[in-house]
Amino acid sequence: MAPSIPTEYFQRHDESDDPLFYRQPRKVVHIDENAIRLLQDYYARCLPQDGVLLDLMTAWRSHLPARLKPQHVTGLGMNEEEMRDNPQLNTFVAHDLNRNPKLPFPDQKFDAVTCAVSVQYLTKPVEVFQEVNRVLKPGGIFIVSFSNRCFPTKAVAVWLNSTDRQHLDLVERYLHEAGNWHEIDRESKSGAHDPMFIVSARRKVVALGTEKNG
Q1: Number of domains in the chain
Q2: pLDDT single digits (tens) 95-115
Q3: Do the domain assignments include residue 212?
Q4: Domain that holds residue 90
Q5: Is residue 211 part of a domain?
Q6: Residues in contact with 42: Cβ distance below 8 Å, sequence separation at least 6, in sequence order
């Protein structure tokens, strides 16, 4: 079934090739220390110990808590130099999801997938969320986090024209449209620091070992 969200919602001020925009390394974090701590606390509660993880749209840091001991962390992002300096990645691949939303990994490879402060740049989010579902093991968790910051020229129109609360609704809609997700959870923390918003879901496990998307 084709996504129902109009394609014009995903237009951007800067429609030039994304590799050009991300060619220059930005070795900085994009949220403050308090927001990072809130995200790490969520990861500590929800990510599996000794798991095989995919950090989607990653960069210089993955924000995984020190007490989490994953078996292996793969990063997928736009800038190789940033990912090479990310101490929490075991391997990484440079890949433009807006050009090709198909993930270069086999089915059911990962126990969990994270996407930190980057979902606002996806021009094909439903297709990407379907691919995340494919590469997750049944029951695996997908954690999408964001704050109120972005590169406005590269964020999609629907994001720029929505409130923080509507961003939560939008990410949840992406999950529903992608299909095969359940146990959707939402958290929001705000105050004097950068806010942290999190939406997570798990890949469905269907009885008798059969699964379907939808």
Answers
A1: 1
A2: 999 999 999 999 999 999 999
A3: no
A4: 9-203
A5: no
A6: 143, 145, 187, 198, 200
